[in-house]
Amino acid sequence: MAINRFELVTRHNPVLEKVDLDSPLSVGNGEFAFTVDVTGLQTLYEDYKENHVPLCTMSQWGWHTTPVSRSSKAATGDKDQERYSYSMDDLIKTEYDFAGRKVSYAVEKKPGNEEVYDWLRQNPHRLNLGRLGFLYQGKEIKADELSEIHQELKLYEGVIESSFRIHEKKCFVRTVCHSSSCTLGVSVESEALTDGSLQIALIFPYGSPDITASDFGCPELHNSKIMKQDEHTTIIERKLDGDGYYVNVNSNGELHDHNDITHQFILTTTKNQLALTVTFTKQVSESVIKIKDVFNSSRSGWKSFWEKGGMVDLHKSKDSRALELERRIVLSQYLLAIQSCGSMPPQETGLTCNSWYGKFHLEMYLWHCAYLPLWNRSDYLERSLPWYRNHLDAARENARRNGYKGARWPKMVAYDAIDSPSTIATLLIWQQPHIIYMLELAYQNKQDKVFLEEYWKVVEETADFMADYAVWNPEKGKYDLTSPIIPAQEEHDPRITVNPAFEVEYWRFTLDIAARWAERLGKDGTNWAKISANMAELPAKDELYLAHENCPDTFEKFNRDHPSMLGAYGLIPSDRVSKAKMEKTLKTVLDCWDYSTMWGWDFAMMAMTAVRLGDADTAINILLKDTPKNCYVTSGNNFQKLRTDLPLYLPGNGSLLLAIPIMIAGYPGCWEEFPGFPKDGTWTVEYESISPFPY
């Protein structure tokens, strides 16, 4: 019997009955997102900002660069000369020995070079496009002025409905996003509108690299100009240094400049209903999207989304945790669709707020999006895959800078794919194989030769770098991954890190995939296959897999951050791993690791390892472990307690959805039904359109 998808999804509609500063709700479409408080707008902006959960309006294309000559008076050369940007050539890099030759990376902040380092790290940064919020009698509204709050995100429609009283006056607000345009729709019903008490303010900030992506304190540095206005439509031009965009406001009210505050526009009406759409565009457009079209687009788009792709129903289970797991699965699908499934790899906080200046971390791309083909949503993954193809030149230059062949994918980048200086990022390598791993997942879902041809150059150049980076060790008769390396567990000295367990096995596995791509297309992949077959062994001691070859005290001194050695038999299906050793390693990690230092995706990764080891009880227990980094708030976001810079952590949500297929549908060589769920009669699992793990 088919799953009743409407009933399943709607039983997990997030509902708020009070101001919850940890759990704002969002609407969006993958290219654009708008995050709101309990008023359905961004009215309580300051309260959320103080709680480190800013309310932003963000897009994939909305970035800002602070000119060098503005960010500091100490620009290089003539101090009177305007300079807009720095480049990697302006950095003084740190030298390392790599297999007998010198390589250099932007790791240390060198004396006299601090400005260059910081500027390149922080620019370009993602931009908050604007704040839309209510005013009452011309003033900011405080949380204690609100009562009788009820807010619900109707997942099947993509509509947030918010009701509340402001000074005893009832308000009802509906907030929605167009399915394919950066257009927000808002409908307000309240008697407080008729006498002008309740107004809507549209406020524009300058750019900032901080978590808010906003600087409201320097109005002189940017421009907000009405280009065109008629009875219902206003087009506003925004200029911030060399960046700009346009805002088209259509409403049944009147929009005008605030008399006293620059960059603020006030929308009023004498009726008890106010409807508006706000469209943000990179290029000027006079096209008008009506409010009914935004609602219709959202409803049809989300109905289509929920009725296609994978679905899991756990509500018949007796285990008390089942509905919570089902809730996390449903809400993670919604959140990742609006935050992570756009035209670029996502940042860790998606389009909600800035993390690491709004730049995305390519080592997290897998955790954000690799689940999509397994849930039969390859088309959502294919929105961002072209970014790799389009930025091959930047990746080639990143490899060439240190004399390597092929294309080297950085860790921390903006839209331009240029590496960012960092004590960690420039030495990280585990992001490199991700694109091969994910392209193979998509191919297995599509079985399309055109797809192979389309992404062959990406696979070829990615694998060429990996092959060139592996160093032949004649004493071992194996290929090493040698220093300088920062492994996935970012706790190790790069100068002594050799053959990190997960990376060695990941190199081996994905080079073999690259060789198979070559074979399918009649190309030569023999060198990749040779290196894959001769990668160094996984380092081990006392029947435990180690973090890396020179880390014998892994479980005594390095039992924090990611236990990444477990990924060598979870995320990937290594045929070299000893199950007995991995079983002992998993048990030791569970017993000794500092859970407060883990990250959201570690729990799903460990669950996958437990599934391959045939331990369903451990898989479900670790997936749902009650610990600060595995917390999922009302909105469904994986909230990283103990950190103020990560109010949400989308790799946690994505890793959950990546673990579910192997737990439900299995993997090659596994004939057990639902291998990730205990067989004690407490779990009843139904699913549709979820593929077995192909690895």
Automatic annotation (TrEMBL):
Transmembrane segments: none annotated. It comes from the Bacteria. SUPFAM superfamilies: Six-hairpin glycosidases. Residues 441-625 form the Glycosyl hydrolase family 95 catalytic domain. Keywords: Hydrolase. Pfam families: Glyco_hydro_95_cat. One of its GO terms (molecular function) is hydrolase activity, hydrolyzing O-glycosyl compounds. GO terms for biological process: carbohydrate metabolic process. This is Glycoside hydrolase family 65. It comes from Anaerocolumna sedimenticola.
